[in-house]
């Protein structure tokens, strides 16, 4: 990972409350899924699938019985359950976001990053986590469809509290990052968007990343060190008017895993 690269933080999968409870058992032979916690607002609850490269899948659901107005105000309220719906970047140094924000806001893409929004959740053990998020918006400061561009999650408490991907000695991946399917890292996150929207989205991605490949892919780093140097974000065409996010992992062997009905994760062989 270089200092200029954004760091892939996590990918968001929205499921029903009932599915969230069932997934650890459903995937006991493929993935290790651990408790996450509830948002401090009480609106959502999650579980985590953490990879050795330090990235993770946040499997999130709306709490049962949550107030309708609070749910409708949430940025994922209109997203479809059973889908990968969003993704987040982070930075080792939060001060590095300002130059990115300026580049994106000046890219003439009609996609902008607004100011920091405080966020957090409480772990099952009672430890409170705090961070700030920055959401992409349009010219009228209205939230965009999730997944078009990454949101940002910048930690106020130490990231290791939010994402326990290292063992206690800090020198090896934690046990919770070891998966029966052998998955190790995220190698590609592909955003499929309508053709008409792709030029503006591409301008945003080029402004975020200083290492544009020129072939519709952009590199990101990870927190996994030299063993996991990172992967690419790719921009492709959606078969309809919606945005779809596809995920490719690297692991011990090539395989396709049905994570949810309609959500297939590709695993390629390699580290």
From TrEMBL:
Gene3D superfamilies for the chain: 2,3-Dihydroxybiphenyl 1,2-Dioxygenase, domain 1
Domain Glyoxalase-like: 8-198
Name assigned to this protein: Glyoxalase-like domain-containing protein
Native source species: Clonostachys chloroleuca
